[in-house]
Amino acid sequence: MPEEISPELTRCLAEALEASRQWVPAWLDKVQTILREQERSAPNYYERTALIDAYTTLQRSRDAVARHWLSAIAESLEDAPSELLGLPKRTSLRLDELELMGDDQVVEKVETARVQQVAMMKAEDAYLEFSARLSTAQGFRVVNADANPLSVTAFVECLIEALKALEISPAVRARWLNAGAAPLGEALAKLYQRLDLLLAEQNVKPAGYAVITAPESRAFTEEELGGEDLLGGPMTERQALLTLDHLHQLLVGSEGSDISQNDEMTRSLAAEVVTLLMQRIAGDKRLLKPVRAQLQDMKPALLELANNDPRFFADRNNPARRLLDNVTARSLAYTSEQEAGFTAYMGELRQIVNDLRRPGGNIASRIPALLERVQRSQDAAVPRAEIEARGRAMQTLVRVEQRKLLAEKIAEEFRARVDYAKAPGPVRRFLTGVWALVVAKARIDESERPPMLSGDSLAKRYVDILGDLLWSCQLSLASQNRPRLVKVIPPVLRTLREGLDSIDYPREKVEAFFQTLMGLHEAAYKTQRPSGRPAPTSADKAPEAEGDVSVLNMDDDALWMRHQEAKDTNFYDDSLPESTQPAFMNTEPMPVQRDWADIKAEMALRDATGLKVGGWFDLQQDGQMLRVQLTWASPHGTLFLFGTASGRSLSMTRRGVDRLIEQGKLRVVADYSMVDEALDAVAEQALKNSGKSSK
What we know:
With about 700 residues, the chain is mainly alpha-helical. The chain folds into four domains: about 5-210, no CATH class; about 225-380, no CATH class; about 385-555, no CATH class; about 565-670, no CATH class. Helix content is about 60%, strand content about 5%. The chain contains 27 helices and six strands. Strands 1, 2, 3, 4, 5 and 6 form a six-stranded antiparallel beta sheet that branches. Helix 2 crosses helix 6 (about 170-200). It starts with 6 loop residues before the first helix and ends with a helix.
């Protein structure tokens, strides 16, 4: 997808805002009309009074609602262009969020879900046609409706935000939303038709639909299920039991609520959550089929746990939850049943299931021992030598990052020098790039092992030569003092080469710089000036050879590793040919290349460093895919360490990771716990059920 926003998209967003100024007031008029009609046909006094209150409040607040809603829409569309390269949320609700919500927030979620569902039913056909054309304007090769900034969800969220800004009772707000959901969908359908026509007039063709292999769970096909429902009954009937309000009360265990921790309803809801959880896991194709089958055999034990402890699945520290987390995460290391280590893993998983299914005794009391055994086995699966190598790699990478960050500060010190700005470009780039790294390494080394005498400081010597270096490369100055020029050149060149050797920087990478520097020195030495003629100014021409100076530049966020550091960390340099990269075994054929936008969409959940430690990825290696896990990220998120199930590690930079993702050579498989994902899907289902049940 392009970094710049297309003019067609810009015009479309502007048109959407202009159109909203017309249909938003019309929608409010329609809601008033519906409320008045409902009042006339109200079955009782209470209902009629409530509708009158809703009608009069809207009549009084109509302009304020329109103003706040249009303001929210404008703000949303203003931010849309800068967020188009952003990443869509995996779900609109997560279980962790639900547990922290208050009752009012739950009601608001349900209201929003219902309005979205009703409005989408009315606008869906027009929305999908518009999204196909808008995806092209956004730069997608295939339809990406999730990235549409003009979605039904976006307009509903703006409406809810506008209503929250006004002092309106929840009962009145609910009446408005109930009356206005269908008209909102109809208004948006007309908007989408209008915008679709606008894009068509600009010769924007609709993007095509494609089946994309994404990292989210997928359900079994009927053939794989053998025609049986994993839940043991009609899906719709069982799923309809769980609403968001029920799930929320189950999670918080509110005292005095209709649902108590000890009653039958609570146990039924807990069993429903566990059943839906295991159904989701059973349909997750990231897990190999034998693994999914074994995990389903754990369901009876988990249902028994839910009967005694209805909230166990919501507690990350609960041994049963940790056991399920552990075995599912570990299974992601394997992409085929033939991979080394899979047979041992399956044997262990079968033993766990057998122990859980053993009759008699309290199942909860068995789980801590099983968890401890699994963790010991997992630790033992990685050779001691690989664990030690990974530890050394992390220490090395921390040191490399420290050196790079310090080099950036040193580069700023160099730029602040009075004599820096007048130096030729190649010299400036050399100093703020590779030479800043040389000085940074020397300072770090000396902080760990201080020199015996002050005169032994390499860092000081590497900085002290800058005065002579910057003076010698300025023709207008150096040409006036040949004796000094002849005197300073040898020690300057000797110190430069010594510093480059200290970081193992290849001479050939800076050969162009040295050629330029020597050319400057030669020009200064040969310059002859008649007596009384003013010295050349900075505008005088000097041989700079700006075009081909291969010098590391801090402005490019570059990184340099010494040979031994790259070896210790098994550094993956994506700029090198693939044949030079670290070799790994047990790889699988690479899947079909996918659209870059869809690959980026997989990175939806990222932590502060940009990648989530513990996530699993597929890395292209010599035309095949290798399953790796992100095991460590440096403190500032510039370096990452990946590992295989056998313990082999490789490191890469932030820029290297981004480039591999863009090239389709690195894709996320699971960036957080599969159990978390499954439970979030349960919360999402409860939200949908709530929207349906409140119609």
